[in-house]
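Q: What would this chain look like folded?
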Amino acid sequence: MNPIVFLIVLALGGGVASSAVKIVNQSDEALVETLGRYNGKKLTPGLNFVTPVLDKVVYKQTVRERVLDVPPQSCITRDNVSISVDAVVYWRIIDLEKAYYKVENLQAAMVNLVLTQIRSEMGKLELDETFTARSEINESLLRELDISTDPWGVKVTRVELRDIMPSKAVQDSMELQMAAERRKRAAVLTSEGERESAVNSAKGKAESEVLAAESGKKAAILDAEAQQKAIVLKAQAYRQEAVLKAQATSEAMAIIADKLRTDPQATDALQYLLAQSYIEMGQHIGESGSSKVMFMDPRTIPATLEGMKAIVGDGNTNAPLS
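A: My prediction, written as structure tokens:
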């Protein structure tokens, strides 16, 4: 055989042999068609063999989770406000046959489907709700996209809205509204603070007046009790003093009476003591807090003394009194 022909045959045989060996990387899969028809032959990760010329690898794709970056999309809310929304979709292929044979361009179909669902969800909400219900929107988009992409052999694992941007005019209106709300809250807080201050001041004044009244009441009670005790003590002192003086006078009278029985000249001493006792009695009446005006006739004093002398004289009839 001609060496050139041999080399050509050898090269063709090597090329055919190499085309029969297919290596698929980890997490990748490939679809093989035989004479343009898919018979369910799928290449898995590792070393695979196909029939040269008859078999052809038509689609090779990873089954790992991928990220679909959805560009900003203009939407209209339920209250007719124009906003721009973009999102990120996490998805992966779970059935390579459906992903290739059920849709012509899987990624373009995914992008258009996500944009349509975003417009639909934004149209159900008012502008304020789009900012506060972001997690609910994400869950709704995930549910709807997962159902819609199931015939394509795709599993949507997560949907996240990144930015919700109203138009410039709407942003200016929102800023004015927020400024007005802040001024309103500041005015409310200021009025509440002033009201609480006035209430606290009134309570403090009332409590101060109550305390002052209670203090005055206690002081008046203590003063009255002190005066009462002083009056009682003073009366007791007067009574004790009067009792002592009466006892002293009685004892002196008894001594004088005994003296008169033995010494007639003691009559002058008796008259002196009677006169002194009479005068002291008037002084005590005058010093008493409940004393009244007492009229005393000086002419009655000698008569009183004579009566007392007569009483004393009854004890000693034999002794002269003058």
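Residues 233-314 form one domain.
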